């Protein structure tokens, strides 16, 4: 398991070639000529892009967080908001993308801020549904760090609802997941008020 995430596909050549073979067959099935000049390299490019967009399967999110946990006596809410992400919906393998905000209340330790963003990526770069993505991020923070509560809010646009199917261009989907002290509606309100404060 690689705990130092890289954005690029370092997958072995055989895996790339095998996926590329399937893309070549798909190109033929949709009526294209995979040997024409513009498409010759496409199956390998598409294979590498797919592996890059699903690199989260080869990352251990909880280990990413655990690699930067620091002592801290305070217990006030910490929020990293508007972490942008790109994911693929598991039903259509089409992109959904948006922003995730993560809040937690420390209990003796804090986490390196970038690790929260890396955790979002580790789960987003898989085949997902938005609800599970939101819950997995929340669980990973909860498991990796002593805390009094964790909350994750996610707002996303799904291309499977825009460029095909129901074709609704303006709809976005909002999901949240929370634990511990965030069961208290007043604390959730404080979190959302802080999220919506103007910069
Ligand atoms: N809950 C949830 N549903 C999702 C997500 N991404 C895509 N979907 C939905 O998954 C559902 C799959 O429904 P199906 O009826 O099996 O597939 P479909 O015939 O392609 O459906 P349409 O999109 O309505 O054309 C659709 O309603 C999608 O909008 C997600 O992240 N969460
Ligand atoms: Zn979909």
Describe the fold and architecture:
The chain is an alpha+beta fold and 199 residues long. The chain has two domains: 13-53, GTP cyclohydrolase I, N-terminal domain (GTP Cyclohydrolase I, Chain A, domain 1); 68-196, GTP Cyclohydrolase I, domain 2. Helix content is 39%, strand content 26%. It contains seven helices and seven strands, in the order αααββββαβαβαβα. The protein starts with 12 loop residues before the first helix and ends with a helix. Guanosine-5'-triphosphate is lined by residues 89, 91, 129-131, 158, 160-161, 165-166.
Q: What are the defining features of this structure?
A:
199 residues; alpha+beta; GTP Cyclohydrolase I, Chain A, domain 1; GTP Cyclohydrolase I, domain 2; 2 domains; five-stranded mixed beta sheet; two-stranded antiparallel ribbon; binds guanosine-5'-triphosphate; binds zinc ion; zinc; GTP_CycHdrlase_I; hydrolase
């Amino acid at each position: 398991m690689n705990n130092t995430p890289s954005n690029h596909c370092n997958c072995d050549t055989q895996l790339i070639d095998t996926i590329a073979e399937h893309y070549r067959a798909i190109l033929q099935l949709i009526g294209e000529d995979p040997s024409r000049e513009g498409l010759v390299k496409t199956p390998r490019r598409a294979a590498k892009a797919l592996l890059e967009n699903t690199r989260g399967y080869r990352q251990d999110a909880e280990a990413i967080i655990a690699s930067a946990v620091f002592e801290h006596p305070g217990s006030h809410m910490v929020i990293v908001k508007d972490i942008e992400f790109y994911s693929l919906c598991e039903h259509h393998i089409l992109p959904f993308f948006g922003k995730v905000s993560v809040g937690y209340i420390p209990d003796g330790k804090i986490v390196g801020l970038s690790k929260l963003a890396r955790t979002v990526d580790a789960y987003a770069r898989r085949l997902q549904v938005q609800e599970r993505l939101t819950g997995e991020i929340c669980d990973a923070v909860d498991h990796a760090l002593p805390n009094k509560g964790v909350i994750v809010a996610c707002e996303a646009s799904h291309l499977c609802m825009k460029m095909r199917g129901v074709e609704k261009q303006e709809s976005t989907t909002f999901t949240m997941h929370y634990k511990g002290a965030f069961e208290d509606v007043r604390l959730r309100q404080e979190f959302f008020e802080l999220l919506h404060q103007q910069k």
